[in-house]
Specification:
353 residues; alpha+beta; Thrombin, subunit H; six-stranded antiparallel β-barrel; 12 strands; elongated
Length: 353
């Protein structure tokens, strides 16, 4: 359509008519005079609108999906981040509970032995200064830690301090081949020396070759002069094997340590020795083995193996049978006696010739 004066006038006229119809429709409300025309237009153009909508909706939905995919991705990323943070928090809480349990157990052992300890955490495990079994702890000279101090945890003897820095220290573990500690048998005075053997049990050499020891007996530290490097009474381990081929002068034992040297986390450095030797008081109470119930079965010769009830029934049957047999015998005896009496009477009744 060309832009002419007539076309402009027609456009203005149509706009004026549209506004007039809108005004009439609004003022008429429900009784609007154009309501019939509106309904007729809806009947005519409704199916066309539905068809166009059906054709356009998939495209619109696809556009919306593309537009919303970024939001979904952001929400998914945010949820994954929150989930990872929650897992980390739960893991941290679990580790915190484990450390608290270790610390409480170590405090219990230190209290039983009256040891003054400085708590520390293992921050490194590995070779240091030529030692093959060592740990590094986060406590040093600034914390009162010195060379040749005893190190323990909630289970027993861990090792001894070998080198000290301002804030860290190196501990030689009790299972190192270069480690040696004096030991004393539980509930006795048998002395010996325990040496580390790496992943194998400790090797203990008792000074008395004829000492009466057995599997399951336990050992504690004997203590050193001036309590360095070892304080007395720290649990060492349990005897798992007694060498039957020991010499006359010494006796060799295999001792499983109480401490697991591959799972060290919280430890304590004994910075103050006890006033007196705690001896065996630090050892945990021995677990009493549960008695195994036994059942005694007594078998009577000739008894029915199917049970007492059956035996009683059988006994009653036998007694009844015996009674029946006895009754038959009595009846038979009576019948025989009666027959003999009848024959005697008949002989007596015969007339004399």
């Amino acid at each position: 359509m060309r832009d002419t004066k007539e076309s402009r006038l027609l456009l203005v006229l149509l706009i004026a008519i549209a506004f007039a119809l809108i005004t009439v429709d609004i003022r008429g409300g429900e009784d609007s005079p154009v309501d019939g025309a509106r309904q007729a237009a809806a009947d005519v153009f409704g199916p066309i609108e539905n068809g166009v909508s059906s054709a356009v909706d998939p495209v619109g939905n696809a556009v919306s999906a593309v537009r919303d995919s970024g939001d979904r991705h952001d929400r998914l990323t945010r949820l994954e981040t929150e989930n990872a943070a929650l897992k980390a928090k739960l893991g941290s809480d679990e580790r915190g509970r484990s450390r608290l349990k270790q610390f409480d157990k170590m405090l219990g052992l230190a209290g039983a032995g009256q040891y003054g300890i400085k708590g520390a955490q293992v921050i490194a495990i590995g070779a240091a200064q030529g030692f093959s079994w060592t740990i590094t702890i986060d406590a040093g000279a600034n914390d009162g830690v010195k060379r040749d101090m005893t190190v323990l945890n909630g289970d027993g003897l861990v090792g001894r301090v070998t080198t000290v820095g301002p804030n860290t220290a190196t501990v030689l573990l009790a299972n190192d081949p270069d480690f040696t500690v004096g030991t004393r048998m539980e509930s006795g005075d048998e002395l010996g020396f325990a040496a580390g053997q790496g992943n194998r049990p400790l090797r203990v050499e008792l000074l008395n070759g004829k000492a009466d020891v057995k599997k399951g007996d336990r050992l504690v530290t004997f203590g050193s002069q001036a309590d360095k490097p070892f304080v007395p009474g720290v649990p060492v381990g349990t005897i798992t094997r007694v060498d039957p081929n020991g010499g006359d002068l010494t006796r060799i034992l295999d001792v499983t340590p109480f401490v697991s040297f591959t799972k060290l986390d919280i430890v304590g450095v004994v910075v103050q020795a006890p006033a007196k030797d705690p001896r065996d008081t630090v050892l945990p109470e021995k677990k009493q083995p549960k008695p195994t119930p036994t059942v005694t079965v007594t078998v009577t010769p000739g008894a029915d193996p199917e049970g007492p009830a059956r035996n009683d029934e059988a006994g009653q049957g036998d007694a009844t049978g015996q009674n029946d047999t006895a009754g038959q015998n009595d009846t038979a005896g009576q019948d025989q006696a009666t027959g003999q009496n009848d024959q005697t009477e008949q002989q007596n009744e015969q007339p004399e010739p």
